[in-house]
Please model this.
Amino acid sequence: MTQQLILIRPKEQSKALLRALVEKLGHAPDAIISPLMEIERLDAALPENMQTPFIFTSQNAVRIAAQMFAQRGPVTCVGAKVAQMARDVGFDVQMTYQTGDDLMGDGVQAGTYLRAEQVSVELNGDALLDEYIIYRQSPLPMTNSAQSAAQSGALVPVYSEYAANRLLDCTNENAPNTTAIGISVKVSAVLARGNFAQIYTAPAPTSDAMLNLILKHL
Model:
């Protein structure tokens, strides 16, 4: 039986995920787009010339940074899609890591970290980086149709710990007929606080691994 899909990422990212699913499936899945957060740009006071490399761990950070300043130069990215977006807006991608933990393991020496207010991995533990918070994820309520689907039984991909907490808040930690898919062990650990039918974890914390796991369970 094909499961209904609830997409809770910010609107543009949910739409991009839906397009990727349509491309793989050859048809549109039964999906509800109900973002549980929206991206809010912040008025960070950025210096005219920032030290490089720039460090990006999300596509939203790249997009907003490109709008905020004209400086370009070398960058370090977490995730292949983040790296591709950075190239598309004129940055010189020198290093790409699969996860923030991988980047931390390699050692962060210097640079400018442009990030969200909420992050899963703290990159700047030793304060070696210049750090600017340029956006936040503001909470949105779950739509009535998504609430109904979550209670009757659906599939919900979850891409961050913040999104996992938002899903728990919106379902009162109780969606016993719904299957959740976490992008990482950390995300699935947050989801485990709730009452779900099943919780699956992507074999790698990447967009491609998530896409393949979603397809497997649709």
Notes: Residues 182 and 201 are 5 Å apart (CA to CA).
